[in-house]
Every structure is written in C-alpha cells, then in structure tokens.
Amino acid sequence: MRRPKSIRAAEDFGRIRLSKSFFMRDFLYSEIANIHGLTNLPEDPDLAVQAGSKLCSELLEPLQDTFGRLGIRSGYRAQAVNGLGNERYGNCASNKANQARHIWDQRSENGGMGAMATVVVPWLADRKDGGTSWTSMAWWIHDNLPYSELQFFPKLFAFNIGWHEFPKKRIASFVAPRGLLTKPGKDNHAGDHSAEYRGFPRLTRKAHPAYPARARAFIEPIERRPRLDPAKGC
User: Fold this and answer.
1) Which end of the chain is more exposed for a tag (fewer CB within 10 A), N or C?
2) What are the tens digits of pLDDT across the range 18-71?
3) How many CB atoms lie within 10 A of CB 148?
C-alpha cells in the first residue's frame, strides 16, 4: 500500500477499519498539521494499519467497552508533524523516541512494531474533582490490559496509552504524584493492585461480529473503482 497522495486515496485510507468501532480517520486529526499545512499521513500505511489495529483491538476497545466512549486527543503523527511539535512546541517527544509510539509507521530501535494514542476517558475525568486519582486508572489498566506504556497528563486526566510487540510495562505521570509509578523490577510492579481501584467497573469485552481488516476499496486499483455518488455521503 502506497502513501495516499490524492483526496480520494486519503478518504479511502481514512475508511480503513482498525477494530470494531475505530477507523483510521479517528487518529489522523492534528492541530499542528492543520495550523501549519502539513500532511498527517503515513509513509508506510501497511505498518501503520497493522500497529493501529493492535492498539485499538487490544487496548482501546476494552477500555471503551468498560468505561464508555473514549475521546481521542492525539493518535498517529507523521514525522514532520511530530518533529515540529517537538522542536517548536515542546509537547511531543523526538521523532526517534516516538518511533512505534505516535509514529505508527516506523519500528522502534529494537525492531518492534507499536502504536500509541492520547485518550480521555470521560468516566475518569468526571470523577477527578471528586478525588479519584489517575493512579487508580493506571493500576486498573496495569492489571487488566496488555499495555506497553502509560503516561498521564493534568488536563482531563488524559493519558498516552501504547501497545508494542515488546511491551515496557512502564507508567509515568505529569500529575501529582509526578514521575515514575512503576516499571519492571520495582517492588510494586507484580501482584494484584485491585485495592488501588475500588469502585471501578470490571473489565468488559462486548461481543461483536467479524469485520474486514481493511477497506477493500482502498486496495483496489484506482481505475477499477466506481466514482462515489456525493448524494450517498462519505
């Protein structure tokens, strides 16, 4: 699959279904790209789709099944978009550090495939003022989902959640208590942490019908596809 270079190809790429309720388009929005006129599309769409599918099916779907609809704050970032965010705004890690994280179409230094998104869980954000700590969600995910990295932020308790072939199982935060919560080798890493998230719902995985791994229309040659009828919508 080649990088989309036309409106029609970009539309078709956005229609690729990554999991039961997430599509590629859900992860392509970027304020930095919009303001600076950058294209936020992958050089290696196949790798981006493969990594994104794992992120969605293994992490985001069970989160959404359990806590309700997620808000996607940031998903895939092209190298130019991430690089500008790092150099000018200081709110993105370097391109090298974000390989197989927000830059889904590049593998990490150890050759692993991965993907990351920044999400808001409204269920959690609504409980922030009532005293619920970000650490409760962190430990819930740690005990229930095959994450690689978690990183929490002050606004709305948004957090980075990453899937990787070789998971780091590392949790850090910019919210008090700031810094590293756990990583392999720390005394608190193993065992049951359910006392940390009392009152949280149990992990839910809702049954759903099978779906195609990608939009078939995208991989058909352009000249073979019928033109879309605008009256039928997008």
Assistant:
1) C
2) 999 999 999 999 999 999 999 999 999 999 999 999 999 999 999 999 999 999
3) 23
Strand partners, 163: 115
Cis peptide bond N-terminal to 177, omega within 30 = yes
Q: Does residue 28 sit within a domain?
A: yes
CA dist., res. 184 & res. 68, Å (int): 30
Does 209 reside within a domain?
no
Query: How many domains is the chain partitioned into structurally?
Result: 1
4 vs 24: CA distance, rounded Å: 13
- Give the end-to-end CA distance of the chain in Å, rounded to a whole number: 21
Contact between 145 and 197 (Cβ < 8 Å):
no
DSSP string, 5-60: -SHHHHHHHHT-B-SSS-BGGGG---HHHHHHT-----SSHHHHHHHHHHHIIIII
Is 15 a domain residue?
A: yes
